[in-house]
Amino acid sequence: MTAFLPVPEQLALLERGVVDLHVQAELEQRLTEARSSGRPLRVKAGFDPTRPDLHLGHCVLLQKMRQFQDLGHTAIFLIGDFTAMVGDPTGNSESRPRLTREEVNRSAETYLAQAFKVLDEHKVELRRNSEWLDRMTMVDAVELMAKTTVSRMLERKDFRLRFEEERAIYQHEFLYPLLQGYDSVALESDVELGGTDQLFNLLMGRDLMGKYGKRPQIVMTTPILEGIDARWENGSTVGKKMSKSADNTIGIQEAPDAMFRKAMQIDDDVVFRFFDLLSSRGNDEIAALRSEKAKGRNPLEIKALFGREIVERFHGAEAADRAAREFDRVYAKDAAPDEVPHVTVTPPGGVAELAWALKQANLATSTSEARRLVEQGGVEVNGQRVTDPKAKLEPGREHLVRVGSKTRRFALIRVSG
User: How far is residue 325's CA from residue 328's CA, in Å, rounded to a whole number?
Assistant: First the structure.
């Protein structure tokens, strides 16, 4: 029989960082029942493997799932190989492109390898919703569709806006929340986890379970994590969500040095949101760090604790130590890293102006941005600050170029000629 912690201790951990909880009293009741009977809760999270690369934003949900595992409950990792072919319309102003099963299966392999860096793969019930959705007949599908109404579907903000703006909503998109909800019926889940953007779909599962004669699941949502460029304004975190398109991610497969450096870029106050959502530290310890910062502790020391924890989680303690030492050597002591990209540029007319060379070396997204960086004093060449964007780089030799101060980037630029 599994020995569970006292219910208040479980709730203190499980409710940390949760946005929506339907219903708290039911969760407390089921945890009490589990402790009495020794039967673990069945905790489901579904993943449509449409993105091959995971970042810390994805880990918020995975971390909550891991907490249930560590408390002795059963984590059901559901691969939405069927629903991924339908395409989740959540949060989209247009219909999603549909994927083939082959595309989904390829992404699923990569997704699982990364997800198991957070989850204990030996304590996961791994399922695919094609197990039951492939077998669903037209009669079954009609019965499922009869469980809800079009007006209920139009309560979803994205559907409602598209309807009001007379933009297309395809009928298969209405099926998606029903199919995701039916997963809960098939798995008889006690709890379903998802991001806040999934609340409608998760509640659909809770509703459908009751209509199929099952005990309705509890729904818990986790926040959408902001990127490393987010800022603290008027007592709250403000910024775009972490995403590759916004170039503000910490990828779980990134090199240790890059992970640590990016962690150190997080705003001094925003880093506590990362602690709350991703750290294994307890509430009291995080509260103590907040208090220490308020009393004057260097924020860099606090961010380094988060950076070390994240790097150690994905690369080990030795890599975390190396990354911290390298950051201190390069950024605290103003040195260049051991590995600097080498770039050879061939300027038109044989003359390489600095702003042009920065663009060619991918140290700036455009020549105009490069000019601005130089004029603002954010560029050094061979250890000397240069403020003239038209400064010439001598041909036939390599120049060590550094861009930025807080977020430094280096390149060895050789001008051919």
Answer: 5
